[in-house]
Amino acid sequence: MEIQQNNKKGRNFLYPKKPSGKLYTYRKWVSYVLLFFLFSCPFVKLNGEQLVLLNFIERKFVFFGLIFTPQDFYLFALAMMIFIIFIVCFTVVLGRLWCGWACPQTIFMEMVFRRIEYWIEGDANHQKKLDAQNWNTEKVLKKGSKHFLFLIISFGIANTFLAYLIGADQLYKIITEPVVLHISGFLSICLFTLIFYGVFAYVREVVCTVICPYGRLQGVLLDNQSLIVAYNEKRGEPRGHLQKNQTVNLNGDCIDCGLCVQVCPTGIDIRQGTQLECVNCTACIDSCNEVMIKINKPINLIGFYTQDFIQHQKPFKLSLRAYGYAAVLMIVMIIFSSLIYRRQDVETTVLRASGTLYQVNTDGTISNLYHAELINKTNKDVKFKFRSKELTDQIKFIQLPKLLQKEGSTQLTFFLIKKAETIKEYKSAVAFEVISDGKIISTAKTTFFSQP
Ligand code: SF4
Ligand code: SF4
């Protein structure tokens, strides 16, 4: 699929017209739900942990009550892989719909900051006029209150962002305890507030059109069977203005009113074809539909179309690529689910002590020396017993802690002692069990050496 890229030089500050329409109303409701989740996830607790935590510094990740430690990095990597494949699969089928409807950048920009701007400064024409006029009381008041609100909201976003990164409890300490105790935390809040303020007050759509790498991938991911926001040029062209008192347009259905361009938050003209800058926000569909209704034409001159439909009237069907990505996604999700299902709250590793072989004891039994590490992936202390799975074997502990602290680890050193007559081969498999509250909560395997 041919995707165009605008090569405008310099920053042309945009004043998109306030959108309205059915799709815009749906977008508002989607954004309310997503904003609710975004702001509540770090502050709602499940099993004593916040719903989502991405603490890269302490390498602790929590998703819906499940704690992932550095030992679970493979699960975290798989979860990231699922997310990326899902986005790729989604893009192949529905284009950049994620950007316009679910990306936090767009949601904050279009549904929070831009709406405050419309509320204080008015629609696009009023904003342009206000920017062009000399500084007076009205301009100072409007600009001052807008930027003050922008800073307050950026502060809120910065705090929430940090709650995801360092945890809501730690954030609470930074806010409530003296600043000198949390200089770096305090500076982080200030820095992130300024970054978010800069992004939403000034950088704006440049994040989507230039900075975000996902937008650049569109050329690779989209094909002629992808459903994207597109202008049906076969129906719209040749475009031409409706003349006064003219009820029938002799041209195509596009009356060249320019509303679809005026409302676009990235400043493009969708009639020039699919462009990298289009975030599929659907604002142009709403605007054009209003026009079509006024001139008694069928709606969706701009709508969700595949290039195959516009060019050859072929109905929408999933491409082979989409089926391929969906199959890969399913496979990775099945692997991920089975690993999560088999994951133990306490992970045990047992290794034979390096540099030691077996020992023959005075009573004829054979012993091997082992080191074990137990990692507690829960947020509760665990009282435990450690035993050999083979009940005829004995364990003599050199070091045996009985309590495994929450989110902590502990070491055990012990001899596994076997009766000589039970040993049939030089290297045999042995297994251990960790018991807590009468239940086996973890197992581990290793090998036992002895001369049979
Ligand atoms: S809003 Fe519709 S009719 Fe108006 S210029 Fe755009 S495509 Fe043409
Ligand atoms: S072209 Fe339409 S869908 Fe694309 S960004 Fe502009 S208004 Fe949104």
What does this structure look like?
- With 452 residues, the protein is α+β, with helices and mostly antiparallel strands.
- The protein has two domains: 1-343, no CATH class; 346-449, Immunoglobulin-like.
- 43% of the residues lie in helices and 19% in strands.
- It contains 16 helices and 17 strands.
- Strands 8, 9, 10, 13 and 15 form a five-stranded antiparallel β-sheet that branches.
- Helix 6 (137-166) crosses helix 7.
- The longest helix has 30 residues, at 137-166.
- It is elongated and about 115 Å long.
- The termini are far apart.
- The mean pLDDT is 89.
- The site of one iron/sulfur cluster has 14 residues, from helix 14.
The count of domains is 2
Mean pLDDT across all amino acids: 89
Gap from first CA to last CA: 70 Å
Strand count, sense and barrel status of the largest sheet are:
5 strands, antiparallel
As residue ranges, the low-confidence spans are none
Name the helicity range.
40-55%
Query: Based on DSSP secondary structure assignment, what is the total number of beta strands?
Result: 17
- Give the ligands present: iron/sulfur cluster
Strand content: 15-25%
Number of helices: 16
Described by the principal axes of the CA atoms, the overall outline is: elongated
